[in-house]
Amino acid sequence: MDKSIQHFYSEKDIKKEYKFWKTQLVPQFNENTSSKLGPIKTEFKEEELRKEPFDLPEKDMEWVIMDITKEGELEKIYNFILKFYYEVEEYKEQYSLEFLKWQFSPIKNSKYKNILLSIQKNNEIIGFFSGLPMKLSVYGMEIIAYNISFMCIDINYRHHKLAEIMFKEMFRRTYLENIFQNIFVSKRLIPKPFAECTYYYKGLKNWKLNKTKKGKASDKLETKTYNFRLMKKKDIKSLSKLISEDQKKYKIYSIYSEEEIEHWFIPIKGVIYSYVKEDENGNITDFTSFYVVNCLFGGNKEKWCYIYFNIATSISSKELLEYSMSLAKNNGINYYICNSINNYEDLSKELKFISNIEDDGSYGSLKYYFNNFICPETEGKDISIILI
User: pLDDT of 312-366, one tens digit each?
Assistant: First the structure.
């Protein structure tokens, strides 16, 4: 067990039986991954690539590929996710139509297609998940992997173990696209995570943007503009260079094309906000971005934002995070959320963010997983992959 992340699984966890995941191309808990890097299975014979979808537990259930360019399809996904996706105690995320369109629309000029797959019964969705292709660098090895996300199942059908069938079906379909790796995150512990991130949040309602004495801990932070502005299309090339250079300091990170920079970072009101600072030659030197999720929290409708990217070169990382929070507040955001990837953990603690993680490490954290890929375990601060 790697000492760097052994806090989020124990000897007791290792001894549990994970029947489904023992049959999949994932590292097991008793496997030492510290010196391993690469695909678990490198070659697939033609006869190993299943052509037909996996069977579903009821005869009137069927697999249906969703196409958000068709009238009503995005709304159908939206209504299902709104009802069944991720709810914990008094907290429920409510993704907007515009947010889902941003997530599920294909990248311009990409040779890889998005997979939006549902299980339907009587023309009604009872299960949904998406697969979005992304390029990654893992300890120097470049791979293409499908990010499996937004998996949710109608509560009335969860006894069928549909999640296991859905994972197998997504793996099958990505293999047929000649992509043999997948990446996903989950709160659940299964064999075997390569990293974990913890969430930290800060309420902005009573956060005042007034000057304070330097070095004194306070919720009143210095008000500065730093000459940031909203990102524009003309910034894509310069921003692409800045992000590419910054990413290289991490062990595991996303690699973005200019088309992906445009897709993921051009501002969309109420969805994604991106701000840049440039030097006298027009080169982007600093960058902050965050995406917005509507939430029900304690019975109240709130706007939360999650930090997306922060890159500081002309000001300090702390100054940039403070300023990003002020931008979020000015855009009507109620809570600002960081996590322990991209090395935000220390800054979050310094700025009095609250961790919602429990003493046992089981709540408020996400585990990172690969399918058909193995690599050394690492800490969240060494990762720069944003998986929504």
Answer: 999 999 999 999 999 999 999 998 988 888 777 777 777 777 765 444 333 368 8
- Verify that 206 and 182 share a domain, yes or no: no
Which residue range forms the structural domain that includes residue 172?
6-187+369-384
Q: In this structure, is residue 364 part of a structural domain?
A: no
Q: Give residue-wise pLDDT tens across range 223-278.
A: 566 899 999 999 999 999 999 999 999 999 999 999 999 999 999 999 999 999 99
- Residue 357: strand, helix, or coil: coil
Dist. CA 184–CA 163, nearest whole Å = 13
Long-range contacts of 285-289, Cβ-Cβ distance < 8 Å, separation of 24 or more: 285/242, 285/313, 285/314, 286/226, 286/228, 286/311, 286/312, 286/313, 286/314, 286/315, 286/320, 287/231, 287/239, 287/242, 287/243, 287/311, 288/228, 288/320, 288/321, 288/323, 288/324, 288/327, 289/231, 289/265
pLDDT tens for 68-100 read 999 999 999 999 999 999 766 667 889 999 999
Is the pTM for the entire model greater than 0.85? yes
Structure tokens at 281: 């030659």
Specify whether 74 is located in the same domain as 128.
Answer: yes
Q: What is the DSSP string of 311-328?
A: E-SSS-HHHHHHHHHHHH
CATH of the domain at 81: 3.40.630.30
* Separation between Cα atoms, residue 128 and residue 154, nearest integer Å: 9
- Do residues 113 and 212 share a domain? no
Per the structure, how many domains does the chain have?
2
158 φ/ψ angles, rounded to the nearest 5 degrees: -70, -15
Q: Are 30 and 164 part of one and the same domain?
A: yes
